[in-house]
Batch of 2 targets.
Target 1
Amino acid sequence: MAAIDIAGVSTTYPNGVRAVDGLDLRVADGELFALLGPSGCGKTTLLRTIAGLEPAAEGSVTIGSRDVTRLPPGARGVAMVFQDYALFPHMTVAENVGYPLRVRRAPREVQRSTAERVASGLSLSELLDRRPGQLSGGQQQRAALARALAVEADVLLLDEPLSNLDARLRLEARTFLKRLQHDLGLTTVFVTHDQAEALALADRIAVMEAGRVRQLGTPREVFQRPSDTFVANFIGSTPMNLLDAVVRDGHVECAGARLARVPHLASGTGVIVGVRPEYLRVDEHGITGRVSIVENLGVTSLVTLECAGGALVSLTVPEQDEPALGRSMAVTAAPGRLLLYAAEDGRLLDSR
Amino acid sequence: MRAADRDAAGLGPVRAFGFLAPALVLIGVFLVFPALWTLYIGITDYQLTGPAAVQPQVVGAENFRTALADPLFGNSVRLTALYALCSAVIGQNVLGFALAWLLRPVRPGLRRAVEGLVLLAWVLPGPVVAYLWFAVLSRDGGTLGLLLDRPATAWLVEYPMASLVVFNIWRGTAFSLLLYTSALAAVPPSQVETARLLGANGWQTVRDAVFPHIRGHVLTNTLLISLWTANDFTPFLLTAGGPNHESEVLPVLIYRQALESGQLGYASAISLLLLVGNLLVALVYLRLLRRRA
């Protein structure tokens, strides 16, 4: 068990690309931590830098109280599960799980008994003598997890842990992973590009872009108060409404409607109004527009309104209240759910 | 299967054969006929000169019996096996793999430079490199003698087989290097990285994370280079089989029997025996390869 301290870490590839750029991060002991971002944001490189597979060009990585920056991967006390699980195809599940002990030259019986003990915790006992090729995707993942746990490392790293599973299995595996991590209390960092996965699994999330952390917080914080428009856009299964607006006479005006009172902002200031479709509700006054598209999401429907000036505003309504196309509707944000971003740099200014 | 399924081009068997004919003629003239001809003269007393050159007599299995009883033939079989084992199966294989493995993390420019240098030994014509090595190993001011401060050592006379083995490793490693370089590129990086993360050392990583993925490549490579080495005639250019038959591998023996002693029939019989030996080796490799699947 150990915390991870990343201080001023930069990782540069031979072609000069700075994949991680002067990054500071602390992952607490026992935490389930997500590195989230679009592809190419440096999240996998950061994970590999923690593992020691990429050398840090600058800065230091500390695990527990040990500075591991210059240590080789095998000496860092980290275990990692790759996206493709990387089970050795010619070994049985038992041999794979016992492999960390085999390289340390533990006796054969110890290898086997450890493999049996770890595997039983992941309901793999029946599969010990199969080869990876004879396992389903979910079983392969559990076998790879078992092998990582057999290392008895201080830190577990997971690269896109759910992306090789089909959709149905992904939900099961997500719940399973979360329970396993809570039971073990093992400091775990995982990488994902899927915001729903990060929200559901993680205790805390670092949203990354271009080698830097854009926002660090709990799933609730990241979802409800994205610190800038990049994060606002990236998080949420239905994209957040981001509407150009101006401040006039102490009020935000957007798409022909007067929204919130902002007494501290000067008239003429450009702002961006951010509000999630889930937090908009039908009202008599507010932003008015015509229903142009209705998309059924199952329990709810996503309604897109075309407003004055061509702005598009989306909201979700219960599926039984689906409005007719072309109907005029007015919507307002639930209290506290309206976010204001600065127009010039996209930083969060305020919420109303 | 209906005829139309097999005849996709709609040519009919006669015209289809017309397209195959040129290739078949070439194969027939340059491969099948010489092979059958060798088989035929292997059972005759055909000679380069004299009455038996004009009217060879069929002597049946006499040549084969002579060969199997001939101590020179046994000597050559032993030397050929030694030559193939030391220079190809062990030398070229291990050195080629080691170079490919060590060059993996190296900058692409440097890697290509090393590959180019190694490849140079492979693409240069045999007589040219043989002459170069002759100069290196010569008794009279040879480079190796000067380097080791043993100027009057006749390496090719005192250590003929060792010289040949070193020469053939130098000459043939390029093929193994290139083959293993591409084989290693096909090993999933996550396998190697997993082994490193689990604390495996270099040898354990190769054994557990790399070798199982390239087993087929290893067998194919070993088969090819051992057959090439067994059939290699370049030793003649360096030692001509000497001194006193100490480096007389089978191709050299065949050449000397055929063209120096003029025993064409006998040499053909030995060629056939070499072919049979090669086939047996190939069968063993193929058996090993199939067991993988």
Note: Residues 241-351 of chain A form a domain with the OB fold (Dihydrolipoamide Acetyltransferase, E2P) fold (CATH 2.40.50.140).
Target 2
Amino acid sequence: MFRTLLATVLTACMAWAAAAAPGPDKDELVIGITQFPSTLHPNIESMLAKSYVLGLTRRPFTAYDKDWKLVCLLCVELPTVENGLARPVDLPNGKRGVEVTYTIQPGATWGDGVPVTTKDVVFTWEVGRHPQSGVAAAEFYRRVTKVEVKDERTFTFHVDKLSFEFASIGGFQLLPAHLEREAFADPTQYRFRTRFDTDPTNPGLHFGPYRIVEVATGSHIALERNPHWYGPKPHFRRIVVRAIENTAALEANLLSGAVDYVAGELGLSLDQAMAFEARHRDRYTVLYKPGLVYEHMDVNLDNPILADRRVREALLLAIDREKLTRTLFGGRQPVARGAIHPLDWVHAEDLPAYAFDPKAAGALLDAAGWPRKGTGIRQNASGERLTIELMTTAGNRGRELVQQVLQSQWRQVGIEVKLRNEPPRVFFGETVSKRRFSGLALFAWLSAPEGVPRTTLHSESIPGPANNFSGQNYPGYANAEMDGLIEKIEVELDRERRRKLWHAQQHLYARDLPALPLFFRADPFVLPKWLTGVEPTGHQYPTTLWVENWGVAAP
Amino acid sequence: MNRFLVHRVLQAAVLVALMSFVCYGLIGLMPGDPIDLLLSADPRLTPEDVARLKAIHGLDRPLLERYLAWLGKAVVGEFGYSRLYAQPAAAVLGPRLANTALLMGISLAAAALIALPLAVAAAARAGTGFDRAVNALCFAGISVPTFWLALILIMVFAVQLGWLPAAGLPMARDPGLLERARHLVLPVLTLTVASVGGHVRYIRAAMIEALGQDYIRTAHAKGLHPRRVLWRHALRNALLPYVTILALDCGALVSGALVTETMFGYPGMGKLIFDAVMGNDFNLALLALLLVTALTVACNLLADVAYAALDPRIRQR
């Protein structure tokens, strides 16, 4: 009796499950990521999950492509001095400015059929520069002193600072004036009334290949093809971006077929992806793209031990970084010689490698007044032990492993390392941002191609009460030569001369070692064999900006 | 009874008001503010941006001043906007509350329905092999980490067998009741397995105590059927302390289950509260925490009232 009942129940369950289980519908793609965007407004706050989703629904004027070249997406032609679309000008205050002209792609139309025009450009600029609008990074909007409208599609930005990056306006994300002007009537309330958050499925908010049709906060965002998209028709009729924060659950969802593809931008950890690849290489392809995520250790230069450059160099020489990345990450995360990525055209090839050399490290420490007796911890003349505190984000398994390797390798040359980790919230929110770490802080910077390190290396960016702790020069590095190089790089338009300045800057960084470089992090993209066209970029512009190239492999 | 009720309601109101201040203060004491966090993620922010954003979000004012401003609006039903979701805090809370109430409500009901007969049967056969087996299962359920259990269930039922979806919420626009139910099976199972052990242990202990009482012996002596003695006489008395456990668990109906929600990608209150606290979203975190407090207090109040109704000695005190 019981067996019959059990068999009946199991059969019913299987039939029910089989009837309801989704088949391999290649017309729909479910992407798994580990974060849900908190707002969908393109210019309020900066969040990777938001950039990822909005990459499907809109296009910035310019972006860096997979080869790290600046290209036009919404504009027709990239402005240069040579083609006359960029014109350096002398300003009344004696400084140099620039006038940059763009033309919007013909055919660019909001999802409700209203053309994208210069009215939207002017409106976006008005919102961005209003101090109460809630736009986070408003520096660009402040620098644009005037928007000159030439016609419905062409406009000129008058920028009060000439910089080599004048053509790059990827952060200037258009807002639909015809929908958003009403919400902006009271700028102080704009961030609460914007339709991007109050009515996110309004088709008029999007002009990309897809438009948002459903937002299940905290769970998923569903998108369908935008009939007004001016570019090539994308393959997938529907894309669902699903947020599953726990990477083990994300992997299980991938294996169960609930998720088709795990995006590298916000996906599995490297060790998890490597283990996954070993088990499921027959069904999935894992692409590893080393990118602009620079893992390093910021050095607190106020620490008298670490203020000595010889100690910093010894610390670097005592680490076998090649072995570390090979052992822990299968060699998929290239060793960094500095903050500039080797794929960046300004990268200097001739930087000192600081290859593993414990003997040289020991000699440097001896010379710095930290001799060693036997195999113990080094001590100075006053009998103080050579002890350094190394902090990182608690719970980040990869970093904690690196930390243990570093501790062990430094112990070999007589340096005592004390590990102290904090939750990311405390570590970034208080300890690092207020320079309250006593020795070394291990974390990563995400930068852009040819990103000028003004906020991380210029002396004016040392966080303190004077600047409201807003700089990111956490080591407290102050070098007039570095300041001068950064300022010259920013305004040098000639590529060759700029390359030389960049090389000088990188050599200075490698000489002074305000931070100890470790490696560039790689993002693992886990794709089903049938998904084609996804090309990881390795920088802050997500793969979704080229979603129209995605497709399904022929069986 | 009325006086008792008024007294307890006033106590509850004071407790909720006190909790609002404690919650606000504790969130305010957390290191860094939302703009500090924003700054660490976006190197483009300038000192001007930081000062401007702190002023916009009122973070440049003292904590007490901010709390009093919030309280002034909260008493007239304005709970402000969620900083994380750029929507009114109450609007963010609504759907999450419904999701959590559904998930936790079914799990709680399932746990109670499974626990009751199991505990009664175990208590009636105390010390036998059956009782020991039930105890072992209870300890296993209590000891198994929720995240591990969730993962195993996903691997078995979603990945290997393919019977059930791994996610807690369907992605189709109008999924229908059946599809919704399929998605809830694994999260409900996880929560039920995790909590049923505790319920069984509690009822079993109360039942064993009740079965040793004089009135049970008298009932047996009167020749009543053993089943009637067990279910009518012993269980009714053993259920009294169980009411307290259920009342305390009612708070979970709105506080959610962080681990289960995270594992199944289920947008519920647990995850929402966690994100709001970690993201320094004062308005949202406060509203959610106060709701949990209020409901827990209300359920305890109901339990007290039920106690008073069931046990005259409490009323007399």
Note: The domain at 292-522 of chain A is CATH 3.10.105.10 (Dipeptide-binding Protein; domain 3).
